[in-house]
Amino acid sequence: MRQVLERAAGRLFPDGTNEHGALPAVLVVLTLATGIVDAVSFLGLDHVFVANMTGNVVFLGFALAGDGDLSVRASLLALGTFAAGAWTAGRIGRRVPQRERLFAAVTAVHAGLVAAALAVALTAGHRTAAAQTALIALLGCGMGLQNAAVRALAVPDLTTTVLTRTLTSLAADAPGPATVRRLASLTAMFTGALCGGTLFLREGAAPALAPALALVLLAAGAVPLRAGGR
Known about the structure:
Keywords: Membrane, Transmembrane, Transmembrane helix. This is YoaK family protein. By secondary structure, the protein is mainly alpha-helical. 76% of the residues lie in helices and 0% in strands. The chain has nine helices and no strands. It has helices at 2-11, 23-44, 53-65, 72-95, 99-124, 129-153, 164-172, 177-203, 205-222.
């Protein structure tokens, strides 16, 4: 599987400048998972995102302005748990300076959090306040961990959770090798959102979270904990 990911990663750098091994392809996999998880959180968890914090800041403003379809509590919970995950990854990073090793460790923890969220969805569903609180907290913390670890890797054009800069670069820059990565990131997020939304609306939270867990597990296993880094 790692060899497949390495070949796919090479295609994301058509100019032959890939110095990141399999990581670029792994980040596309995580972008796909992000789309799935944000579909579940927005459609089923009080209209919040667990990955897109820009959206939550705006939703918090709308909720405070009086929009009854949005929740101040849910927006604050998503923002707070995402920040807690990012803070935790930062503290781990001070003890694990190798970036790939940090990414492997953090992604393994992230997989555990998504597994816990899946367990909550299977046993308690997603409609009660307690279940929604647990799901937002688990998924938000996992996405904060992911975002901080990916930020440390600094693989160009592959952030896994936000696309504003990616879309801006696609529109503003002349076509070139980076265009492949940017289009892959946009396509992965869209595909994840489409698949996650379809599964959630037709089957529920647990069937939508199951493929997200499989993707995060794939990402966690693609970079061994013993891996060295820059």
